[in-house]
Amino acid sequence: MAPMPHSDGYWKWFSGNVASGGAAGASSLLFVYSLDYARTRLANDAKSAKGGGARQFNGLVDVYKKTLASDGITGLYHGFVPSVVGIIVYRGLYFGCYDSLKPVVLVGNLEGLFLASFFLGWGVTIGAGLASYPLDTIRHRMMMTSGAGMHYKSMFDAGSQIIAKEGTKSLFKGAGANILRGVAGAGVLS
């Protein structure tokens, strides 16, 4: 990201870092979302088959064929909106906070210390991950409704139904694993 300009002020610079990180993440989704959708469907299919159920798909191409037949092209993009919002939140906070906090926090004795940079990166990764995790949960739930009789009207409908049926904590199921996985993200930032 850009070095901090002294004339424009810190918050304007910080907002620019968050926006550019978010835009980079959102633009990448245009190219990879349908593959993520297919991967999620295949993983869930394999999980249900282990539990004694019949497999629904015979591979990646079969996921595409069956989804296109049942829901059209939009079926491949169930959950796309919360995914875009989530990636903007995650990447915006991830890159924006790190690049904005680094020149403020890593000064004096902490300047140039790998461990200090690593812990700042890990903290930013955890914060960004927790802030965006509910959107990821909503995205996965919306993906799993493709081809089924049930469809959420919007990401807000999905979120409110999940909270009403399972409670707010259900939006964070699996977040602990993401915190541990964040060590790798912290290493990249360091």
Automatic annotation (TrEMBL):
Coiled coil: none
Keyword Membrane carried by entry: yes
Cellular component annotations (GO), alphabetically ordered: mitochondrial inner membrane
Keywords: Antiport, Membrane, Mitochondrion, Mitochondrion inner membrane, Repeat, Transmembrane, Transmembrane helix, Transport
Solcar repeats: 12-104, 112-190
Stored Gene3D superfamilies: Mitochondrial carrier domain
Protein function: ADP:ATP antiporter that mediates import of ADP into the mitochondrial matrix for ATP synthesis, and export of ATP out to fuel the cell. Cycles between the cytoplasmic-open state (c-state) and the matrix-open state (m-state): operates by the alternating access mechanism with a single substrate-binding site intermittently exposed to either the cytosolic (c-state) or matrix (m-state) side of the inner mitochondrial membrane. Catalyzes the exchange of ADP and ATP across the membrane.
Subunit structure: Monomer.
Protein name: ADP/ATP translocase
Species of provenance: Boletus edulis BED1
